[in-house]
Every structure is written in structure tokens, then in C-alpha cells.
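Hey all, quick one. A colleague (J.T.) asked me to put the iron/sulfur cluster job into the tracker so the inputs and the C-alpha cells live in one place instead of scattered across chat threads. No bug as far as I know, just bookkeeping. Sequence used:
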Amino acid sequence: MSACRHNFGKASAAALADGESRAILDKAILQIHALRQRSVDAMPDFTDRRARAVAVRQATLDRLPDLLETLEASVTAAGGIVHFAEDASQASRLITDLLTARGVRLAVKSKSMVSEEIGLNEALAAAGIEAVETDLGEYIIQLMGQKPSHILAPALHVSKEQVSALFAEKFGRTSTDIPEMTRIARDSLRAKFLAADAGITGANIVVAETGTVMVLENEGNIRLTGSCPPIHVALMTLEKVVGSLAEAAAVLDILPPSATGQTLPVHLSLFTGARRDGERDGPREMHLVILDNGRSELLADPILRPILKCIRCGACLNVCPVYQSVGGHAYGSVYPGPMGSILSSVLKDAAGDARQPFACTHCGACAEACPAGIDHPVLLQELRRRQAEQGTDTATKSYAALARHPLLFGAAAAWARTVDPRLDRVAAMAPDGPVGKFLRGRKFPGLSKPFSRRFKAMAKRLSRAQAKGGRS
Ligand code: SF4
């Protein structure tokens, strides 16, 4: 499990206290969720579509090594070059070296959570390469110097007014009219597309049989990123592969409805290799970087493995009461919400807090919404169990030890009952450290009436009532 480098509890408390951000988030999530629901309701065969897509995702996991071999051969045959990267730093170094060796100074990028996972923008900047995000939401976030708060809608937490103020500051043009604001961003980005030496895209689905990288979008920026500059680097994680175009179609059947509520996105781009002889456009060089970063270990894990079926639709985030309350930034990792709490706990180099699984309320809304058939609560429960086994929490370990000795536990419970009315005050005054954290992180149940005593009293009342011939 990843090391704890972020305090989810503190970040969540800060997010909950930020009324303005919560209001923006509430509104945005309600909208995105309503779109999904309307789209799913309009598809009487959604359950069948989902079953087909789940079967495809399962088949991918069952034959992943073979599919990756086929993919490598297909991409090579189409004139592309395949690179395998074991972890995040190897992947970002590989791409940075590749672009540096070709004299790239400016790279345009499409939205890619994998590039966030490997810290690509930071690595490129350190190598003197300017990387410009071209997805509108991602561009806004980049200009704000922030990280995405949602895997699908990176600027979900930002209001129209905040974007207007940002554009006024950066471009000197003021408007709160959305089409006009889009024009302002487009004017700035067009010049970047034309000047870029390389384009970096993510990949929604990659077809082993043909070596085709499929990406879905609504703005046209990915199409330009992958075809305008002379070099195209596509970045995928190894589980994104499927066997054939027919299998890709099965995933496409459920991805846009679950993500944005669309039957299909406005643009569906298929990139296969580099420009062939006689072709007039397309990149002269095409590289496909396949990232592992802990996923092979996940594949070998019989319980957590289903998270690799995830198609990054974001539906589980939109229905999760924890994500809805605290937003994506509180997670401190690239992947927030239910899927993120699982993925971030096992990925190498993940920046999140390994205790995120403990925030789950086990309401099950994520599993119900997930088109890939992932049962998140079961996986989160397993992560909790593993952490409890590792025994990282001293207070929980002490409690467990106490609970194993009935006499000691009884004495401690008797003491707790005497201080019960003052327990909240005791918790508030406890010094920082494991005990303080344990006390403050819990809502204490009423301890003044132990169940054994209540049971005895109840039994007495019952026998008295029976003696009188009455009903209990
Ligand atoms: S876990 Fe399921 S619902 Fe969540 S993003 Fe992945 S596919 Fe979508």
C-alpha cells in the first residue's frame, strides 16, 4: 500500500468548511448526475449493454499479457513505436528524454489522468519543455495552478465567475458568457496547436488487434493534439487494452452514457500508427507509452483485481456522498472518490492518504452506478482489513487488544460509563497523538446503559407481564 503523504481527514475538514466551493460542487454534481440518469433511463437495453461491456473488461484482465503482445505487434506494424514503463518516474523520464532528443520546446496535451499520475507536466517543465493543456477544463486548471478535482470534469469545482476573473487576468478579456469565454480560450490555444512540436494524448480504449488508440471528447482538441504536431505520444495504462474493434464498441456503448449522459461524444478519434507514405497529414512519429505503475501486482491480486475493469467514467464519484461532500482535492491524489480510494491505495508513487478507504460509508451507491460492475464497498472493506492487519493505528490496535480480554474490557467499559457524559469534552481536550486522534475521530454511543443490563431489565418486565397474563 502506498505511503501516507497527505492528510485526508484535515483536507476534508477544510473542504467541508468552505461553503462557496461546496455550493459549486453540489450544483455541478447534481447536473452531471441528472444527465447520466436521463441517458441511462432512455436506454431500455442498458442492462444488456452493461453486461456485454463487463464481459469485455473481464476478458481483458483474463488475457492481458497476450493482448499487450498483440498490441505491440500491431502498433509496430502501423509504423508506431511502443514503450513499456514500469513506474511513474520511468514513464515521465522516457517521454521527457524522447521529446528532448527531438528538440521539442512546446507540447500540446489532451486531458490525461495518466499524465497527471506520472507528473508529466512537472517533468517536462524541468526539462525546459512547455506543456499546454488543451482540454478547456484542464486548461483552466493549469492557468489556476491547480490539479483536477474530478477524473472527467477537471474544473468541476470552479464557477463561471471564477473562470471569467481568471481569463480577465490572463488574457485581459472579460465575459461571463460561456460561448464567449470558450472563444477566448480557443484564440489562445489555436496558436499553441500551430506552434507545437509534439502532441501528447491519453487513451480511453486501445485495440490490440489493430493498434488503434481511441479517445473520446467534445471539443476537438484531442483530434488536433494527435494529428497537427509532427510527433504524437499516446499514454495508456496497461488495462486500457481490448482485443478487437467489436470489443471496443461494447465499451463505447456504456462509457459516454455513464460519463456525460451522451450516446456518443461529439468527437471520437482513432489514431493508428504514424503517417504512411503518400498520406498528407498526421504525425510523422507515433509513440505509445504503456504504463504499469503497480497494476501488474493488482492483476495478480484476486480480491482487488476488479478495479482494473474501471473505464474512468466518473459515475462512482458523482454518486458518492463522501466525494459530494469534500470534492476531489481533499483526496490529494490523481484519482478521487470510490475508484480513487481503491486505486490510489495500491498504485506505486500514489500521493493520496492510504486511510481513504475508512471514509467509505458503505452505502453502495458507487457499485450500483458503476457500468464496469465493480463492487467498490467489497474492495474498500478488503483495504481496511489489510490496513488493520498491518496495524498502523496504535489506538485501534490497543482497542482490539482490550476487546480480546472480557474482564479488562468490562472494567474499561465501566470506567467509560462513568465519564460518558463528559466524553466529548475529554476528546476535545486530549492532546494530539494517536489517542487524541482516535477520540476526536469518533462519535461515541451512549454507554450509560449497557446492553446486558437492559436485557436483564427487559427479561424481568417480560416475565412479570407473563405472570399477570398480559402481553409484552
Ligand atoms: S469505478 Fe466504475 S463508476 Fe467509477 S469511474 Fe470506474 S467504471 Fe466508472
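Adding what we noticed when we looked at it: The first strand starts at residue 81 and ends at 85. The pocket of iron/sulfur cluster is lined by residues 310-316, 339, 369-372, 374 (CB under 6 Å).
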